[in-house]
Write a structure and sequence with these properties.
Elements (H helix, E strand, L loop, with lengths): L9 H12 L15 H9 L1 H18 L15 E3 L10 E11 L2 E6 L14 E7 L8 E5 L13 E4 L4 E11 L1 E3 L1 E14 L2 E2 L5 E5 L24 E5 L7 E4 L7 E12 L2 E5 L1 E2 L7 E2 L3 E7 L8 E5 L13 E4 L4 E11 L1 E3 L2 E6 L1 E6 L2 E2 L6 E5 L2 E5 L6 E2 L2 E3 L2 H45 L4 H53 L2 H29 L6 H15 L4 E6 L10 H22 L3 E9 L2 E8 L16 H9 L3 E6 L5 E8 H4 L3 H5 L1
Helix pairs in contact: 2-4, 3-4, 5-6, 7-8, 8-9
Keywords: Kinase, Signal, Transferase, Two-component regulatory system
GO molecular function: kinase activity
Organism: Luteolibacter rhizosphaerae
Length: 677
């Protein structure tokens, strides 16, 4: 068996790292206190308050599953900063050359960390983003521009801009408005990530800019595409309870050389390498990573003819490693990949060669995921799976696009949460106060409520009976009284004719008319009785009665009655049933009296939430008076007004008449529920 490398105790490291990686929770929202009886009762009567509390709980639950947000300030390679150094230099801008034309997906702008003396992170207040295929932007197209109002600071969270999915090689951000900090139009950004689909294409891109404020090792346009941000490691919010935290070897001073070797399983070029730092409990924030790294690739496991595809050169990597290190690589195909670290990271008298996770990306695939990686030092090979298991420092490592998207969603959730929390506190206090007063009033009225209910029912019943009596009396007066008066006059005329003419013919005619009016009086009485019948209150019952009425009044005219309503089972109120039927009956009387029509069409149908009754004939039209008014429709207009409906009359000599009554179904139905069923 091969000798084991000296490795650091991992259990203690893992437990401490887990605590550091727990997601930043949203503060407690002080939602419903179930131990408070007044609060529980208040929520029974305030549905809106319950909905707000449920939404707050959902937001908090959702935030627990998102990437944690916690700024970890950088000491080196902070980002890009600009200002109007020369007034004639134009607006500050920065452009990225992506190396090839790709469809532009989403763009994420990460604010720079707040500097001493600055009120915030100096995120651009107004800016525009253009895309082009040519380097001089002669074919530029604008894919984003802020409005006239300045954009507020995102409070350290990334800002997402959606691309147009069209091909472009160059992307340019132009500052429209910044801040005044000695210079005019000052702004700062930590990173600008450009994605094609979900693949980052801006890491290591060529950068050009004007009006940049450059401070060696701190501010430089190149730092905008190095993958370093103050947002930490690309990890999800749910902590994974595992001791897997990567690989850490303690090496002697005289032999610091360590190699990590992986078989990619296929021969392919590599786009980029991503190295995650190894978390140590001795370090409160930064992690461990070799100061100098170079990457080689070959077609054989012996690495004969291997070619170097990435290196950080002679300059050590930053020491404040709270973020992954991204290394763009040369497009050289190979199957076997070797990461070489010649210089160890020093912690006191100890020298450490350590990595938390290693990713090998080609396009949107991590070729190293789940593969065994061999650590080689002093001729000894030690396989490990902890460098490729997707776990770093106890947390699950996310793809870059997923990580940024979750941070944007967390920002949106926090904004909504803060707005809901403010309104929730107000609603809860008001609701509980109202409930307290309501309970006091209800207790005081406990003995009065039964008396009030009985008295109200008595008054309502009496009022309804009085109204019903008046309606019946009015109908009897209009229909039966008029007809009986006519019978009396005709009988008197028959008597005079009999005395004067001494002939039976005229008397027979008069008596025949008496018989007709008497029959109509009987039918009118039946209609009134039907109107008062409670068991026949549906629209279907009304349609059947309309058919019977048409059969009586339109005996000499060809007619049709069609019902297209889908609410025939809905119940009508007594008042609406009466006015609808009498409106219809009056309309048929007008046809018989005035139209000289040969055909009549009656339609009953629905138009959205309204019931429409339409009576059409092919007669000569309704008669008009001297003022060109149709007196025959006055009663119809009155009934339409009572029903709170609208009456449309289309009548012209020789072109017939159309009467169209439209009434809201809620005004007709016995209950509001029936109106919508």
């Amino acid at each position: 068996m091969k000798n084991q490398h000296p490795r650091l105790p991992r259990l203690r490291v893992g437990l401490l790292a887990l605590v550091a990686l727990l997601p930043t929770p949203l503060p407690a929202a002080d939602v419903a206190q179930t131990s408070n009886p007044i609060g529980r009762v208040a929520r029974l009567f305030n549905r809106k308050l319950v909905e707000v509390e449920n939404r707050i709980r959902w937001l908090e639950s959702r935030a627990d599953n998102l990437a944690a947000f916690g700024e970890k300030p950088l000491k080196e390679n902070v980002g890009w900063r600009c200002g109007r150094i020369e007034e004639t230099g134009g607006k500050p801008w920065i452009a990225l050359d992506l190396g090839r034309e790709v469809p532009l997906g989403q763009i994420f702008l990460v604010p720079a960390q707040q500097q001493a003396g600055d009120p915030n992170d100096l995120f651009p207040r107004r800016f525009s983003i253009e895309a082009a295929c040519s380097a001089d932007f002669s074919d530029a197209r604008t894919i984003y521009r802020t409005g006239q109002l300045p954009q507020p600071s995102p409070q350290g969270y990334p800002v997402r801009v959606n691309g147009d999915k069209l091909a472009a090689r160059h992307v340019r951000l132009t500052l429209e408005e910044g801040y005044r900090r000695g210079l005019q139009d000052v702004c700062a950004l930590s990173e600008m990530f450009v994605f094609s689909d979900h693949t980052p294409v801006s890491l290591g891109a060529k950068v050009s800019a004007n009006q940049s404020v450059e401070v060696p090792g701190v501010w430089d346009p190149e730092f905008l595409v190095d993958g370093r941000t103050p947002l930490g490691v690309w990890q999800g919010g749910m902590t994974t309870w595992t001791i897997s935290h990567g690989d850490c070897l303690e090496v002697p001073l005289e032999n610091q050389h360590v190699e990590w070797i992986v078989d990619l399983g296929e021969t392919t070029p590599v786009d980029r390498m991503v190295f995650f730092p190894y978390a140590l409990p001795e370090l409160s924030g930064p992690g461990v990573i070799p100061p100098r790294i170079r990457v080689e690739i070959a077609d054989n496991p012996e690495f004969k003819g291997a070619k170097q595809i990435a290196s950080n050169g002679e300059r050590d990597l930053p020491v404040d490693l709270t973020t992954p290190v991204v290394m763009p690589t040369d497009a050289v195909p190979g199957r076997y990949l070797r990461v070489i670290a010649d210089k160890a990271w020093q912690l006191g008298n100890r020298r450490l060669q350590a990595l938390g996770e290693m990713e090998v990306w080609t396009g949107d695939r991590n070729l190293a995921a789940g593969r065994e990686i061999v650590a080689r030092h002093g001729g000894i090979d030690q396989p490990t799976a902890e460098l490729s298991d997707g776990l770093g420092g106890g947390g699950q490592i996310l793809p870059l696009h997923t990580w940024l998207s979750q941070l944007v969603e967390r920002s949106q959730i926090r904004g909504e949460w803060e707005g809901l929390r403010a309104s929730h506190l107000t609603m809860a206090s008001e609701s509980e106060l109202n409930t307290t007063w309501g309970a006091a009033v209800a207790l005081g009225l406990t003995f009065l409520i039964p008396v009030a209910i009985v008295e109200r029912r008595r008054l309502v019943s009496r009022t309804q009976l009085d109204k019903l009596r008046k309606r019946i009396a009015s109908d009897l007066h209009d229909d039966i009284g008029s007809n009986l008066g006519s019978i009396s006059l005709i009988a008197r005329s028959a008597k005079r004719d009999l005395e004067r003419l001494h002939g039976p013919d005229v008397v027979a005619n008069d008596l025949g008319e008496v018989e007709t009016i008497a029959r109509e009086s009987s039918l009118a009485m039946r209609d009134i009785v039907w109107l008062l019948e409670r068991r026949q209150d549906t629209i279907g019952d009304l349609v059947q009665r309309m058919r019977d009425c048409a059969a009586r009044l339109l005996r000499e005219i060809e007619y049709s009655l069609v019902c297209r309503s889908s609410k025939t089972a809905a119940k009508l109120t007594l008042d609406s049933k009466r006015h609808l039927f009498l409106f219809y009956k009056e309309a048929l009387h007008n046809v018989v009296k005035h139209s000289k029509a040969t055909t009549v069409t009656v339609r009953l149908f629905d138009v959205r939430e309204r019931l429409v009754l339409e009576v059409c004939d092919n007669g000569i039209g309704l008669p008009r008076n001297e003022d060109d008014q149709m007196a025959a429709v006055k009663k119809l207009s009155d009934r339409a007004r009572v029903l709170e409906g609208t009456l449309e009359v289309e009548s012209a000599p020789g072109r017939g008449t159309t009467l169209r009554l439209s009434v809201k179904r809620t005004s007709l139905m016995a209950t509001r529920a029936n109106a919508h069923e």
